[in-house]
Design brief:
The chain is mostly helical. It is built from 15 helices and three strands. The longest helix is centred in the first third of the chain and has 40 residues.
Length: about 375
């Protein structure tokens, strides 16, 4: 047998050793991959239990404690007190008082331009035989110029063209010296067309008309009959009139309820935030959930108690109880239910995902808990 030359053997041996090491590393790596695959499989097998445990941890960390309960009752009490003090018929002005309030805030030099009567306030129709259905007590619900939303468009058009558009959108009258003298040529479309032509000829007409519209809204806003709920008069004139005239459920009561409810919610949120303790309460995000729960639960308690109280009084024969219905506060409650639920849900999903991924990435089995 021929012997391998020593020089060739010295070259083959290192190659053989490297090959052996490579194979050994490959086998070791495959063994580790197999073990990791088994571990991950065990984690995925217990995924439901893990997620349930993580969900329970989230609820424990965001659950209300004694301090939160105190804040909840304080917030609910303040909301209920607000509903009692600021009922829909409280703090109202007469029509003349509203006009005087606006006149005191507008510079004298502008009064002739901005404080004269608007055409959609016209109720007389001398020489026009048709019954317009407009009167001192109904014109705010039957004219689009008084609609808090559509009025910003239709009102300035009426002011510029000396016209009056009813809540049915189709009917538009010509107005001269605050007297309805007939149908406007081509109706509402004609009024808009004429308005465009007049504004193109005189650019200042539009901003002056818009300011005049805003001032008129301001003078009507606080009065007894107020301004109707936006668009409601177009959909159902009778309901809009009943809500505003009989129960004072109008833009003033609704926006006031919204503003005061949001103000109280903000104050409670800020004060509750001051009680944050990192050692006791954990992360800021979890504490924010508790703050939102306090405010939302308080709103739910206040709105529910208000609805129940009004409903019981109404069915017992007290029709005026609807004046105590806090529509603005109810809108805030519904808004918070939607936004806070979305916030808490998103935070919970991030919590579950982050912790579950971290758990899978860790080199441990699930026998030791979460």
């Amino acid at each position: 047998m021929r012997r391998v030359p020593q020089t060739l053997k010295s070259q083959i041996d290192p190659l053989s050793q490297r090959k052996f090491n490579a194979v050994n590393q490959l086998l070791t790596g495959m063994d580790q991959v197999e073990k990791e695959a088994v571990r991950v499989a065990e984690v995925m097998r217990d995924a439901r239990k893990i997620l349930d445990d993580l969900d329970r941890q989230f609820e424990e960390q965001t659950g209300l404690i004694e301090t939160d309960i105190k804040f909840l009752f304080l917030a609910a009490g303040l909301q209920c007190l607000r509903q009692y003090i600021f009922s829909n018929d409280a703090f109202r002005l007469t029509a003349s008082e509203g006009d005087r309030l606006v006149e005191r805030t507008v510079p004298k030099a502008w009064q002739d331009i901005l404080c004269s009567s608007v055409p959609y306030d016209a109720i007389r129709h001398d020489g026009f035989a048709e019954n317009t259905g407009l009167s001192g007590s109904t014109h705010r619900y039957r004219t689009l110029g008084h609609d808090p939303l559509l009025g910003w468009v239709v009102g300035p058009v009426n002011i510029i063209t000396d016209s009056l558009t009813k809540s049915d959108i189709i009917t538009t009258y010509s107005v001269q010296n605050m007297n309805i003298c007939g149908y406007y040529p081509s109706g509402t479309v004609g009024a808009f067309s004429d308005c465009i032509g007049l504004v193109q000829a005189e650019k200042k007409l539009l901003p002056i008309a818009v300011i005049r519209q805003a001032i008129h809204f301001g003078s009507d806003y606080f009065t007894k009959h107020g301004l109707p709920v936006p668009i409601l008069s177009t959909l159902n004139n009778d309901i809009a009139r009943s809500m505003a005239a009989q129960y004072n459920i109008d833009m003033y009561s609704i926006t006031r309820g919204v503003a005061l409810s949001v103000f109280l919610n903000t104050i409670i949120s800020y004060i509750h935030t001051l009680f944050y303790d990192v050692e006791r309460d954990g992360s800021r995000e979890m504490y924010e959930v508790r703050t939102r729960k306090v405010v939302t639960y308080a709103n739910i308690v206040a709105s529910t108690s208000n609805i129940v109280s009004v409903a019981v009084q109404y069915f017992l024969g007290n029709k005026k109880s609807l004046k105590q219905l806090d529509v603005g506060g109810l809108l805030v409650t519904l808004y918070r239910l939607f936004t806070d639920y979305r916030y808490v849900y998103q935070l919970k999903m991030e919590f579950l995902s982050r912790n579950f991924v971290a758990l899978v990435a860790e080199n441990k089995t699930m026998t030791g808990g979460v």
